[in-house]
Design a protein that fits this description.
This protein is α+β, with helices and mostly antiparallel strands and 143 residues long. The protein contains three helices and six strands. Strand 1 and strand 2 form a beta hairpin.
Length: 143
Amino acid sequence: MPTKYIGVMQVEAAPYEQDGKVGYLVEYADGSVFWMQASVFYRTFFSLSAPGGDTLTENDITRFFDKFESQKMGEKTLVTQATMINGFSMVTDASCVDPKNYDEEIGSKICLERLRNKTWELMGFVLQWARSGIKPEENHLEF
């Protein structure tokens, strides 16, 4: 039975129609080029906002969020879940010491800032992997 693999890579792509189907010509770092159907392309790649795609931007981070759901827990805690466009979810919370000081707007701002910061970290990891690849398997650490 074949082994499953996951991968992240940075490519250049341009819209291109082939045999009456909408798609993209995708060019890999090694120069190889192939056509990919648009629906597969959109499920595989995320466009970067910065010219040249060498860095992440606020816009990239914002576009990666799909939805937020918040709920008050007890008398002084707001719990917020962010769901990303790839279906991944993260949860964070914000609490106050005195229930009289509970303010959902302040709690929401705190939660959103924490979720954005975590997303910067995760997307930075993805961009690094996409740009640099990974070490050959024989060089991996063993625990």
